[in-house]
TrEMBL record:
Organism of derivation: Paenibacillus violae
Keyword Transmembrane helix: yes
Alphabetized InterPro entries for the sequence: DUF2269_transmembrane
Keywords, sorted A to Z: Membrane, Transmembrane, Transmembrane helix
Signal peptide (UniProt feature, chain positions): none
Protein name: DUF2269 family protein
Record has Isomerase as a keyword: no
Transmembrane segments: 6-26, 47-69, 75-99, 126-145
Superkingdom of origin organism: Bacteria
Amino acid sequence: MYIYLLFVHIISAITAMAAVICYPLIMSSARTTGQAKFALALLEKTAILPKLGGTLLLLTGLALGFLETSLFKELWYLLSIVIFLVILVIFAGLIPAGIKQQLTLLQKTQGDNLPDAYRQSRRRSAWLEVIANLAAFIVILLMVFKP
């Protein structure tokens, strides 16, 4: 059972993390209002991937811990769960709220120039994405090297 859970855990990580890593890449390419609207609509459609993959990742990680109870005594395991919860809050709650706000700002915009209010909101989202990606990198390091 452990090996099957580990397999689902790894597939969930790939699903969640691939989407997370792509967010800044997609958004950094938007230079006009039309491009930003398209990029945000794309992110809105792919937002299910970090939510679904992340939830499944957390559940399988906890299930692995219940199968191997000694993991709950390991600092790397506990830190991974705490850091991952931060990532989940960012990508399941904060970033989707930012996407909705940015889309609303762009809907009110006439022309192709990106408004300053959008740029400020986008900067906030970009910082959240950087924090989440850095946290994901730390979690991966913790899981691979198990210090």
